[in-house]
Every structure is written in structure tokens, then in C-alpha cells.
Amino acid sequence: MNWTSRSQSIRCPPRNASINSLNPSGKVPILLDGNDAIIDSVAICQYLADKHGQCTFRAGTIERAHQDSFTQFATDDVESCLWTVSKHKFVLPEGLRVPAVKEACRYDFDRAIETLAKRLGSKNYVMGNTFTVPDLLLGHCGGWAESIGWTVNDAIVADYISRVRARPAFIGTYAARIQA
Ligand SMILES: N[C@@H](CCC(=O)N[C@@H](CS)C(=O)NCC(=O)O)C(=O)O
Q: Is the CB of residue 83 below 6 angstroms from any atom belonging to ligand 1?
């Protein structure tokens, strides 16, 4: 396989030989950049933002510290609930699945949404008027929640998620993904 193609997206199932050679966990996604392979989706997003100087504040600034705090909040407090529920629904070996975990995850998810509403206030995006990496992650989580039938029980956060997902860049990327 030619790893040097720059704008091509290659569909590869997890744990196949090519993936295993690039990521010891066998997990996807992987960003191929020149002869390098970057693993872990948040690192990939932040790398692309830094590299292109968009959707991010500069490392070492106070704004970046707050932005990174939102990034960690998106993964630790919001995405972890969705991921745990999904793992116990269809990812883990059947014998290890605990359906009751759903209640605890939903509880934590609602708490996270409450917190996000407070942190967001009347801002357009988590960092104000500038769209940054954590908005991308939280918008993704919003779609994920909807796909498993979880309503976002807060008008501020629900509006925010709609706003993020109504951006032309999101709509274009989503359409390209469906066609791929
Ligand atoms: N920390 C990784 C996790 C990636 C991940 O869990 N990928 C799933 C697909 S969404 C996977 O490849 N699972 C295969 C496996 O667990 O073996 C990231 O954020 O990219």
C-alpha cells in the first residue's frame, strides 16, 4: 500500500495486517502523513488543526489551555459515556456485556450536558466565536447521542450541537463520508 498519498482516505477494518503494522492496538482511525502514521483521533484532529493553523489557538497560550480543557472534557465526560454504552451493546464479546451499565452512563451523560450548558453560557462555540477542535468532538458526540436515542435535555446544548452540525464544513464532510 502507498502510504504517501496525501488526500486519500483508505477504508481498512481494524486489526487487519496493515493496521496492526501501524498501530499496536489494531484500532482505527490512523492518519497517514508522509511516511508517518498518527494514531488516536483527538491527536489526529489537533495535529491537523496545528499544522494548518485553523480551528485552534496556539500552543502555550491561555486560550489553548482552556481549549485543551474542553477537549479533555469532551472525551472524558461526554464521549466516554457514549463509548461505554456502545461497547456494552455491540463491541465487547457477548459474555462481557453488562446492559445495566446504560443507566450509569446516561446519568453521567446528563451531568456532563448540564456542565457543558454552564460552561457554554451564551457563547457560539466553547471558545467564543472561534470554532475549535473541542467543538468538532462535541458535535460528533451530539450526533452519536442522537443515533442511540439519547435526547440532549438542555436547550443551550441542543442548540449548540445543531449549530456545530449546521456548519457548511460539517455538512460537506458528512456528505463526502456517506459517498465514500
Ligand atoms: N483512542 C482511539 C480509539 C479508537 C477506537 O476505539 N477505534 C475502534 C473503532 S471506532 C476500533 O478500531 N476498534 C477495534 C478494536 O477495539 O479492536 C481513538 O480515539 O482513535
A: no
CA of 59 to the centre of ligand 1 (A): 26
CATH of 62-170, one of 3.90.180.10, 3.30.300.20, 1.10.3720.10, 1.20.1050.10: 1.20.1050.10
Domain boundaries, given as residue ranges, for the chain: 1-39, 62-170
**pTM of this structure:** 0.93
Query: With the C-alpha atoms ordered 151, 157, 159, 163, is the resulting torsion angle positive or negative?
Result: negative
Judge if the beta carbon of residue 22 lies within 6 A of ligand 1. Answer: no
pLDDT value at residue 7:
54
Query: Quick one: which H or E segment has residue 32?
Result: strand 30-33
Reported as a single tens digit per residue, the pLDDT across 62-103 is: 999 999 999 999 999 999 999 999 999 999 999 999 999 999
- CA 67 – CA 164 distance, rounded (Å): 16
In whole angstroms, what is the distance from residue 148 CA to residue 165 CA? 17
Tens digit of pLDDT for each residue in 159-179?
999 999 999 999 998 888 777
